[in-house]
Amino acid sequence: MKITRRAEFSASHYCSSPALSAEQNAAVYGNGANPHGHGHNYVLEVTLDGTPDPVTGMVMDLKVLKEILNDEVVHPMDHRFLNREVPPFDHIVPTPENIAREIWRRLSGKLNMPNARLHSVRIYETEDLWVEYAE
Amino acid sequence: MTRLGRRYRFSAAHRLHSRQLSAEENRTLYGKCNNPFGHGHNYVLEVILRGEPDAKTGLLASLEPLDLFVHETVLAKMDHRYLNEEVEPFDTVPPTTENLAIEIRSRLEQNGGGFFNNGVYLDGVRIWETRRNMVEY
Predict the structure, then answer these.
(1) Which domain covers residue A50, as residue numbers?
(2) Percent of all residues in chain A with a pLDDT value above 70, rounded to a whole number
(3) Given a cut of 80, is residue B115 above it in pLDDT?
(4) Can you give the pTM of this predicted structure?
(5) pLDDT value of position B18
(6) How far is the C-alpha of A72 from the C-alpha of A65, rounded, in Å?
(7) Catalytic residue status for B86
(8) Residue A103 belongs to a domain with what CATH number?
(9) Helices marked H in chain A — which ranges?
(10) Catalytic site includes residue B129
(11) Is B14 a catalytic residue?
């Protein structure tokens, strides 16, 4: 059985790879490469795959899940400039692909219970663009 | 594995009518969707890619060329059209959301040679005919 919890955070970022020239960065990322940054209201969907506990009827206590999401993602990233304030995005381009993988890295060890484990992390950068990461 | 979903919108008219059924059977099966004058929807199309992001750019797909590809392959052909009259194969195949999903996926696959070849695959499409019904293929 899968359960999904949603969280939201707002942050600024820009996309520019040190491995590329300024012209190449502008060509690849377009106006997303503006080094002053720009922002998004990110929506995060975290999905667990597991079986409900026979006593509580819950795959996971959602209060606990919410606290983990707050500690690992929302508090460190909300109202932050990702490139300047949130490692590893000082040296890894904060594309939604890399943000999804980083959030997976932060959560997978904390969401690995006997009856349930992290299934996938989906991040919406806008309503019209999402990226999902799973291992 | 990484998947990326990108959402697009187009508006089109259609009429649900099967050539293999009689007029009476069509009316019974499709109800008001069989109205001979047609009717329209604001469709939402989600194109889902699958693969590994490029190590250098951190991108699974650059959005500008993806948007251009979907626009040229699907949106420009279907937006503000009467599907039954103007968009093949819906002159013969009833333009249900199911058949629309099959056709759009096939168009993306057939024309995606420049796009789906560097370890990036078309994972599927989702189409909302209204906000209350969605088909995934």
Answers:
(1) 2-133
(2) 100
(3) no
(4) 0.91
(5) 92
(6) 11
(7) no
(8) 3.30.479.10
(9) 22-29, 62-69, 75-77, 82-85, 96-108
(10) yes
(11) no
